[in-house]
Design goal:
By secondary structure, the protein is an alpha/beta fold. The protein folds into 2 domains: 232 residues, Type I PLP-dependent aspartate aminotransferase-like (Major domain) (Aspartate Aminotransferase, domain 2, 3-Layer(aba) Sandwich), CATH 3.40.640.10; 123 residues, Aspartate Aminotransferase, domain 1 (Alpha-Beta Complex). Helix content is 38%, strand content 15%. It contains 12 helices and 14 strands. Strands 1-9-8-5-4-2-3 form a 7-stranded mixed sheet, with helices on both faces. The longest helix is centred in the C-terminal third of the chain and has 19 residues. It is globular. The chain starts with 17 loop residues before the first helix and ends with a helix. The structure holds pyridoxal-5'-phosphate. The site of pyridoxal-5'-phosphate has 13 residues, from helix 3.
């Protein structure tokens, strides 16, 4: 088992299943034949399917997940000077959307080793200028979103859920993304529901927000050449929607495969007390877009990283630097140790391969290599 020869990628986006490939080929051919490359019928079809899957009224497809966040902030009516609370241990997109609109980013630290933010720490950051909270369900694990939404209602603040990594994740048997005013999705190729390039969507049950977001995503138009407000060109290409119409058929199967792999990792590594493993939490259904383990410290993380790389295993660090330490946010003059949990996570986190095509022998090889590192 330990002599596995081929490289194991961190992620493999190639579709190997023949039937799946044929379905995608045929969906693409259909688009080539009708030629409606922008706002073709596949976009509507996909929106309808996604709306049923997530049990949400309105889907506004757009060009990518970052646009989904930016458009959401605009659709909620945020204006210069308004403050938005954003997780500091996170991908850059949410804070980037806040900054690009001239709003003020107020970072909040992760709460614990679940990687997510919680209501208690968020409440400490609320001021009279706070207008929205962006909650990222990081790596596919739902945050305790009921408490966060409860807090937001108390202070009359909007909640935007970033479900880029958590499409299909649930909290208390309800899909995440549908708790707050708005949910934002990315269909980037490594996401659980992925297209063959960039794509995104905004989801909401609020008709007014939906109409505004739809307008903003399409040049602020109310009708052809009727521009009511300034908007963007942010649309989901028909070709990407055609791909997504097939991908969504495989979503639940792929999520089950990810959960199965996560269970194998847990069973194979749980006796190694030096590692902290990710887990489902009470009420949550994880999508394991990433499988992030925590090591004792930075040095141990680097050693394991090197060992696994040398053994031909693709590993990544999500995220090596907390956002307050990024130059892009230097205007706030944050200091080291201002967000101790995030900084600690950045030093200790290591992501190991998890994707639906990961083969049993690859999985066992990865587990065996980690066990070898810890002399187990
Ligand atoms: C948590 C999170 N939010 C937002 C995004 C942005 O999505 P996109 O790359 O489609 O703009 C990503 C993408 O990596 C992400 O992981």
């Amino acid at each position: 088992m330990l002599d596995y020869k081929a490289e194991i990628p961190f992620f493999d986006t190639v579709i190997y299943d023949n039937q799946h490939r044929l379905q995608i080929d045929s969906a693409i051919q259909k688009v080539l034949n009708h030629g409606k490359f922008i706002n073709g019928p596949e976009v509507r079809e996909f929106s309808d399917t996604l709306s049923r899957y997530l049990d949400v009224k309105y889907i506004i497809p757009c060009a990518n997940g970052t646009d989904a966040l930016t458009i959401s902030l605009l659709a909620l009516g945020l204006q210069r000077g308004d403050e938005v609370i954003v997780p500091v241990f996170n991908y850059v997109a949410a804070a980037e959307a806040v900054e690009i609109l001239g709003l003020t980013t107020v970072f909040v630290d992760a709460s614990d080793e679940s990687f997510n933010v919680e209501a208690e720490k968020i409440e400490e950051k609320i001021t009279s200028k706070t207008k929205a909270i962006i909650v990222t369900h990081l790596f596919g694990l739902s945050a305790k979103i009921d408490q966060i939404v409860g807090l937001a209602r108390k202070y009359k603040i909007s909640v935007i859920e970033d479900i880029a990594q958590a499409v299909g994740a649930e909290f208390n048997h309800k899909k995440v993304g549908t708790y707050g005013e708005v949910g934002c999705i990315s269909f980037f190729p490594t996401k659980n529901l992925a297209c063959f390039g960039d794509g995104g969507a905004i989801i909401t049950n609020n008709e007014v927000i939906a109409e505004k977001a739809r307008m903003i995503a399409n040049h602020g138009q109310t009708g052809k050449y009727e521009h009511k407000i300034i908007g963007f060109n942010s649309r989901l290409d028909t070709l990407q929607a055609a791909v997504l119409n097939v991908q969504i058929l495989y979503l639940e199967e792929n999520l089950s495969k990810r959960r199965f792999i996560a269970k194998q990792y847990r069973d194979g590594l749980k006796d190694i007390t030096e590692i902290c493993l990710p887990d489902e939490q009470e009420g949550s259904l994880h999508t394991f877009n990433q499988y992030c383990i925590l090591l004792k410290n930075k040095e141990q993380r680097q050693n394991l990283y090197n060992e696994l790389r040398n053994a031909g295993i693709g590993v990544m660090i999500y995220y090596p630097k907390a956002l307050h330490m990024q130059e892009a946010f230097s205007r706030y003059q944050f200091k080291e140790n201002e967000f101790p949990v995030a900084e600690d996570l950045c030093n200790r986190v290591l992501s190991i391969p998890i994707f639906p095509n990961l083969q049993e022998e690859q999985l066992q090889y990865i587990i065996a290599q980690i066990r070898k590192f810890f002399n187990r």
